[in-house]
């Protein structure tokens, strides 16, 4: 096996793991993006991010489809949330040229710490699916969540899936399982918004992205099926682990001044 084949095999392994994690609680980028940067250091960062988005969007789409078949969700509200997130993700991506996204790191780290502590402290948080908002309130909250988190995902990105799940549990009263399903649909919209820029600008290496996409789909299939079978307790446990990993990663980046 040549060096290229070995590298591609490693990337496909990381893509499978990323798809699994992302399907359950989001955060697959914690695995797949560093793997691309380490194993393909000769490529420009924009190309690495574009390749990551292309390969991961298929896993996200598969997870969204798996959840949609088995979890009851308010489709009209989520459609509005996803559409709003798509538009604001594009605006967020454009804002990168005006503002430095790295300035958000301390604030995002604080917000992740709040999410982490609150989820640990409230043992029953997200254990039951008990929507608390009226249809009109759900639409308003959905539009607000889509705008804020969509812009954030386009502008900066890390922790988008975690923030979406926390919003659907905390604001809407969803269980962790339903919140993860809802987050997949919104995350799919923001990923497509990113690809709308990466693909036309030639920032995707398809010889890497295509096989990685297949492995990402396989991982997402396993992750979504396990989440549906094991329920909200399983999703909550992995959610706490991923938020902790995100916090550690961002604290490390701040410490070394990245």
Automatic annotation (TrEMBL):
Database matches in InterPro entries: TM_pro_TauE-like, TSUP
UniProt KW Transport keyword: yes
Superkingdom per UniProt: Bacteria
Membrane-spanning intervals of the chain: 77-96, 102-120, 163-183, 204-222, 234-252
Membrane topology, from the record: Multi-pass membrane protein
Subcellular location: Cell membrane
One CC-aspect GO term: plasma membrane
Keywords, in A-Z order: Cell membrane, Membrane, Transmembrane, Transmembrane helix, Transport
Family: Belongs to the 4-toluene sulfonate uptake permease (TSUP) (TC 2.A.102) family.
Protein name: Probable membrane transporter protein
Source organism per UniProt: Stagnimonas aquatica
């Amino acid at each position: 096996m040549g060096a290229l084949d070995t590298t591609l095999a490693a990337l496909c392994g990381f893509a499978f793991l990323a798809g699994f994690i992302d399907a359950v609680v989001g955060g697959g980028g914690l695995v797949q993006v560093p793997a691309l940067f380490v194993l393909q250091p000769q490529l420009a960062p924009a190309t690495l991010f574009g390749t990551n988005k292309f390969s991961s969007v298929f896993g996200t789409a598969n997870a969204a489809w798996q959840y949609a078949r088995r979890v009851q969700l308010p489709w009209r509200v989520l459609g509005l949330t996803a559409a709003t997130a798509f538009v604001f993700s594009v605006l967020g991506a454009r804002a990168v040229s005006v503002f430095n996204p790295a300035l958000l790191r301390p604030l995002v780290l604080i917000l992740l710490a709040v999410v982490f502590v609150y989820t640990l402290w409230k043992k029953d948080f997200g254990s039951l699916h008990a929507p608390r908002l009226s249809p009109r309130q759900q639409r308003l909250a959905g539009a607000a969540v889509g705008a804020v988190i969509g812009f954030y995902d386009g502008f900066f990105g890390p922790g988008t899936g975690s923030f979406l799940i926390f919003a659907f549990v905390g604001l809407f009263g969803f269980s962790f399982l339903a919140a993860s399903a809802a987050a997949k649909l919104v995350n799919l919209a923001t990923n497509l918004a990113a690809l709308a820029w990466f693909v036309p600008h030639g920032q995707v290496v398809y010889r890497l992205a295509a096989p990685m996409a297949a492995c990402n789909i396989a991982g997402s299939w396993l992750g979504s099926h396990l989440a549906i079978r094991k329920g909200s307790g399983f999703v909550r446990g992995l959610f706490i682990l991923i938020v902790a990993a995100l916090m550690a990663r961002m604290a490390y980046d701040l410490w070394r001044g990245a």
